[in-house]
Known about the structure:
The protein has one domain (17-159): glutathione-dependent formaldehyde- activating enzyme (gfa) (Alpha-Beta Complex). The protein is globular. It has helices spanning 44-50, 149-159, and strands spanning 2-5, 19-21, 28-31, 36-41, 55-61, 65-69, 72-78, 81-86, 92-97, 103-107, 122-123. The chain has two helices and eleven strands; from the N terminus they run E-E-E-E-H-E-E-E-E-E-E-E-H. By secondary structure, it is mostly beta strands.
Amino acid sequence: MRTRWRWPLIPSQLSSERCGGCLCGAIRYRLLSEPFDAGYCHCRMCQLASGAPAMVFATVPRSDFLLEKGELTCRRSSDIGDRWFCADCGTPIAMVVDYAPDDLDFTVVTLDDPTDLPPAFHIWRQSRVGWFDTIDALPRHERARPETEPLIAAARERAAPVPAN
């Protein structure tokens, strides 16, 4: 299912210098707070959504992601998350997961200057493409980070269909 998402423009909140957008310029956004938890994701869904071996996401409170131009299109990409992208050029912009609905994970490389927001960990290494690796000493997790695993399990349990009696 696809939906469109447009945030209200609130000029008094435009204080962050971190801005970004999509390849074609139809989407522009601004972050109203400092991102946290930047990391590589090697899951198969990220590979297929990006056409790359991994994606790098960082997190901000959902209310601190200000869409300044355009409308994002949403697609449910798993049983626990929605991906937001530009419908014109396909650039993946963000993801919202059911276990953290007040947060938004955005794709770091869509920032105008992503250089000072390096990843700090790897997740879903069990799905990594065998010929791709990074030269770093960052923590590597075969699945999600240990502190996130219980949240994912609970979200999946809530999303599971109820058997008919």
